[in-house]
Amino acid sequence: MEQNADTNLKKRRIKLIDGRYMIFYTFEDQPALAPEEAPATRPEPEPKPQTEDDRFV
Amino acid sequence: MSELRWNPLLAEWVATATHRQERTFLPPTDFCPLCPTKKGGFPTEVPEGTYDIVVFENQFPSLRPDPLPPAVESTDLYPVRPSEGVCEVVLYSPNHTTTLADEPVEQIYKLVQVWTDRFIELGALDHVSYVFEFENKGEATGVTLHHPHGQIYGYPFIPPGIARELAQSRHHRARTGRCLICDILAEERLDGRRIVAENNSFVATIPFFARWPYEVHIYSSRHFQALSDMSSSEQQDVAAMLKMVLAAFDRLFDLSFPYMMVIHQRPVDGGVYDYYHFHIEFYPPLRTATKLKYLAGSEMGAGMFINDTLAEEKTSELRARIKPAVWAQREEDRD
Fold this sequence. Notes:
By secondary structure, chain A is mainly beta. Helix content of chain A is 9%, strand content 30%. Chain A is built from one helix and three strands; from the N terminus they run βββα.
């Protein structure tokens, strides 16, 4: 088992029957310091309506 | 049979991989080879179901660490080399019916960390010069398995699409002293009409030169070259930006939106690429809810894309569907 102390990322590597590797990643106590989300950018103009013609032409 | 054949007309390698003809093709949900093996069920490729993300070598690789010798001889005009490299599959979840767009932002943050780990690990291999992380989503992009997954190719050379971006970036730096993508980002911000979303560290835009109707590019605000250059805060910000863009895609036509998503970062061949700029590109094949944008004569035969739409109008549609990504821990803190 490998572990990254900075991220609490854990890797467990196994060998499959045909010789290929498989790595299971798990995370423990994932840092909850989510950054502040900026609002969804700038003032939004009205979306362009999609007509039936536009869908099927 | 698998080998790399040189195309002297375009100066690029083509991989032959005839064994891929035999790969599983759109199996019924109950027989998905990427679901965890169930007790008493048929053995899938994944023997366990307790994981956040799982990565494994592709059963039908076009590149592999121990390739067989080429089946044909090289000539001066037609060099041939073994198809050496790596092909990995990245499962986003044990849940067959989810998509990256449906996953919480926390799970996408975990995926970003796994992408980073794979970039570092594969980038350290002598026979890998470029680590290419990507996802093909939806039958419209040619997926053969619906289980939510992406892929990673470790190429033994710098692929031509990346080489072209590197050359343009290098020439721009030599000519102006500035980064090309930093300048693109500045121009998009100045205009504003093609900005889809922005957070502390990333900007999503359908750029001026988009070739596909909903071709979103996500550029880092800070100039850096690779996933491994990101701070933890930037990793969380790119996860949040991916969540916002992916969810907005699904809201466009109220369907699970198909796309090709590719991560562009510096090569890992030991060269200096400080003029390059990390970014993510999406190529969604839909141009309306029911119509596909096909790559036809002009695109394939001449290399010139014809976009039937204006980036400014498509951005407006997509931006109207952007909602902020919500982190569960922050919501709990508020309660």
